[in-house]
Specification:
By secondary structure, this protein is an all-alpha fold. It contains 4 helices and no strands. Helix 2 runs antiparallel to helix 3, helix 2 packs across helix 4 and helix 3 packs across helix 4. The longest helix has 26 residues. It is elongated. The relative contact order is 0.07.
């Protein structure tokens, strides 16, 4: 199950990084929140709710450019699929 996989990750990371379980959990939560925040900001940007500059300020130009490339590819794939 998904939960068993997560617990195995936790156990392995705790053992191999030699960090306390609580510290590994804290790092995991911080990492997850950063990812969720990034996805939220990039979603807002792609929907035109915030400007490109605001998105860059919030998550950095690399993430914004990656989102733009992925979005353009998705639109190309969609256009190609509709032509079929």
């Amino acid at each position: 199950s998904n939960m068993d996989t997560m617990l195995a990750y936790l156990e392995t990371l705790t053992r191999e990084t030699e960090k306390p379980e609580a510290e590994v959990m804290t790092l995991a939560i911080m990492s997850g929140l950063r990812q969720l925040w990034r996805e939220h900001v990039l979603g807002q940007f792609l929907r035109g709710k915030i400007s490109r500059d605001e998105a860059i300020e919030a998550v950095g130009i690399d993430w914004v450019e990656l989102a733009e490339r992925q979005h353009a590819t998705m639109l190309e794939d969609l256009a190609w699929a509709l032509e079929e």
